[in-house]
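Title: Prediction job returns without error message
Component: structure pipeline
Severity: low
Priority: P3
Assignee: unassigned

Description:
Job completed but the reporter wants confirmation the result is attached to the right record. Sequence as submitted:
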Amino acid sequence: MPLPFESGRGHGHVRTGKEAFGMSSSEEKRDESLDSGTVETVRGLVRKFVGELSPLPASSGVRADLILRDELGYDSVRQVELTFLLEELFGFESLVVEEAPFMETVGDLEDFTLDMISRGRARVPSQSDVDRVGELVPTRSE
């Protein structure tokens, strides 16, 4: 089974963003109903953990447009680790992760997470959740 965060380079058309999630205009409105603080918190947490788990450091920080595989060095093993980490952090049900479309960029991952929160299929983590999951991230060897 393909991984939800696997890069689609060279595999034909890869749908990203709202197209990949099959979001209708009513679903887009639900996504927009999240307050700006929640959106910023979720985007910040996704970027934080993508950056901490990334095999390659992002020289100018983790941005939404960075490609997980090509620019941040995510191979299939690291993608699985990221999947489990985010599943734990945001409380995704396993079925949600299995339904996830291919996600090529950090922004795709952020959008998917926000969509799942707006649908009630994931949650915004508490600070204790963030701290607990942060302890699971391996330290980068110098």
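Comment from assignee: result matches the submitted record. Residues 25-122 form a domain with the Non-ribosomal Peptide Synthetase Peptidyl Carrier Protein; Chain A fold (CATH 1.10.1200.10).
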